[in-house]
Input
Amino acid sequence: MKWWIVGAVVIVAAAIVPTFLDPTGYAIRVLTLALLFAALGQAWNIVGGLANQISLGHAAFFGLGAYTSTILLINFGLSPWIGMLAGAAIAAVAAYLLSFPTMKLRGHYFALATLAFSEVLRVIAGSWTSVTGGPVGLSVPFSPDSFWLLQFKSTMPYYYIMLGALVVISGVFVWVRHSSLGYRLRALKENPEAAEVVGVNTTQVKITAAVISAALTATLGTLYAQFTYFFDPEAVFGIIPISVRAAIIAILGGAGTVVGPIIGAFLIVPMEEMANVLLSSRGAGLSQLAFGVMLIAIILIEPRGILALITNGVSRLRRRKSS
Output
């Protein structure tokens, strides 16, 4: 069966699922967050998965999207859809400027540089009280249900918006992967020196991928702000809740593949919620400890991600049947 038929079936199934759930219940909220973070992992995957540039600074672009759209809404009454475009443009410019001093770096040096950038923005957001609200954060003004203002009392419309975002960003990932840019990114990933020898402009390729990934990440920051109605600097610029989570989702599911971040998000987000529900009342930090142990166990079993684990399992079954 062709991959696009499988994708269409999965999208239709995902569109039907909410009809069986309480539109304001806990289950649909967890699924909506899973879709949002699957899209975030997919945006990270363009840089981290295809080019093996392990960024720990995507929270910077996520936060820029959240703050830009919310500040424009509060102060000028602009629709979050317009704010989303403005946030994506600002994040793209920020990624472009950040790329110049960091693209020569590799491995953990690149990861630390991007991490420092998001930390700088988090500190600025926490201290620029007159614009960002400081440590207290910002609240999205309430309004009646409105697609233009991206506000709904029910969670179901947010579910479909997050699903649409995931489909669009996955489409962008597939387009990049099969374009000339994708081939250059994979050449860069395998051997940067060899790629340069055969004529690949590695700096230009890295910058292009970083700008695309940053712009997409910023749009998700806007959706997060409208979905949660409130955020502070730690929630959108935080290393653990955003940057590390995006990287773990993609790596755990299968970095460099289109389904990897989706598998990773639909494993991590529900598992994290389950650990919080079952263990948070029994001891401080116990749920985070259990969640961390589970993640370590999965990585130790198959470092290439769950997708590789599934593929290997299917191959073994086929060999047994044929023998």
The mean pLDDT is 87. The chain has 15 helices and two strands.
